[in-house]
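Q: Hand in one record:
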Amino acid sequence: MNKFDIKNKLYKPIVLFSLVLLIKSAVAWFVVFNDGPNWSMVLTEIPFFIIVFSLIEWLASKRKILYYMIANLLITVIYFSVLMYYKYYGVIATYHALQQADKVTKVGESTYSLIAPYYLFIFVDIIFFLFFMFRPKYIAKWKERGLKRMNRAVLLVITAVSIGLCFFSIWPNHASMNEIKKAESMGILNYELYTLFADTTEDEELIDSKEITQQAVNELKGIQEPATPQFYGADKGKNLIVVQMESFQSFLLGLTIDGQEITPNLNKLVQENTYFNNFYTNAGQGTTSDAEFVVNTSFYVPKNEPATSSAYMEKSVPSLPKLLASNGYDTATFHTNSVDFWNRKELYKAVGFDTYYDQAFFGDDDHIAFGASDEVLFAKTVPQLSKMDAGDKPFYAMVISMTAHHPYHMPEDKYKMELPERFEGTLLGNYIRAQNYADYAMGQFLKELKTSGLWDDSLVVFYGDHQGLPMYTLGSDEKELINGLVGHEYGYTDMFNIPFIVHSPSAKLPAVMDHTGGQVDILPTVANLLGVSVQNQLHFGEDLFNQQTNLLPVRHFLPTGSFINDKSIYVTGDAYADGTNYSQLDNSSLEGGSTEAQFDAVQRLLHLSNSYILQLPDLEQ
């Protein structure tokens, strides 16, 4: 074969576009999979390209090259979405994530900050093709090539072989529970196709609501509710103030850099109140709004979508606001963003808040991230709380901070600490500086609560909503920096560990609680302190002052089946047996850190939660 023949074959659209897309797939594999690009990538990705391009060869005639370019663009967008999504969430994006694409425009700065320059390389060919497509002499050449039909026999053979290769990539790996491993074994595009097919053909059968009882939940978790709970009613009749802290992780507490405390106000809060040091986020794809849902319902989030974008919002969900309202409380929630963002208006209706205060109330002065700053949030919230406190009823108020939101770009006039040069210009440095400011604003809030008398008349709890520093986002230099701060290799147990701090006016609680807890446990824990019974309200959390063991499913950010127990975070492999346990102490691998019975119980708990919610009465409009 001479050079002309080789060149002619390479210029065949099906060959040229397949090679171009193979390079793009290599970029995605380099970002997403630990092993990076390899020969299995060729055997899993190229057959998918050929099937798509074969359809064009069979069906198209005059505009064949245009269809090739459209297919190239669509597949490029899929690869780009996969690597961008993985960079923050650590999971493979599917069509479920793309359904939330409208949210990207509202968190643009956060999204754009994840883009490494070489990611844009995968769009270079599209720009190149467009440049030449609009030049007359090249248009004529492309039209000529587009009119040439491939040999039908050859086309039939390569299509059949490609379909066979795709099938044998998908089927042997379809039972794997680890979505990352599944995508690597199937190929990214095959995995996307399989997910779409599986979700439309494999409906989860709901468990009969008669089988979903508190006893069934407790047995799966291995707990029994005490006949006489400790601390029951310790703060009976007090207000409840719940403060959700944006992106706050526990490793920051007590941490100093060059002698400077990052969170001096929260450090003091921890020392003077009850601190749960082994507490974890239960948020899923909806991150902040998911945390709001879990805390206010004690249910788990749905599998493939934010709670606020799911069928859950069509149901009358048992909740903390409804529970407290039935016990004589007024309820309100405070957030400086628009109530329409993440469908919070539907969330607040579903869980039953009496009143919400959003951007329309707080305005947009001192704008940081997506709304008015935490200083404005707290300054305008306290007078409203005082008005509620002056009424005849106690109140429940949820206050949601937002300033310390990814990518943590703070105005210089908000800097409250000096950072060493090695932290400047890094995501870690920006995160520390943002949380230092958030702590400063929190200090102002605490001062106003005490001055107004609300502190002494309220049960006040503080917790982080979700992880702020995904391990997948950090560069090698940043990983070295954070490893030095936490004293070991930064990993899952650091990333998902968030603070939970309880201020009780009764002052009868322990200083530190060591056993495992999560956001799903907040509802029964505060209800116990307030002397409000949850016996007639199904909940998947537990009262952390009266239990010593826990089992927490992890949604979305880890492979299906992953969970947190009393010793470790278990991350699923293809099945339970080849999963890994990470010690809660130092993120090291821990032999025997979990059991298969716990693994099975977690699947059942998630199924019970989902089944129960979907069979609840529809919300009255």
Residues 64-89 form the longest helix (26 residues). Confidence is low (pLDDT under 50) at residues 3-8.
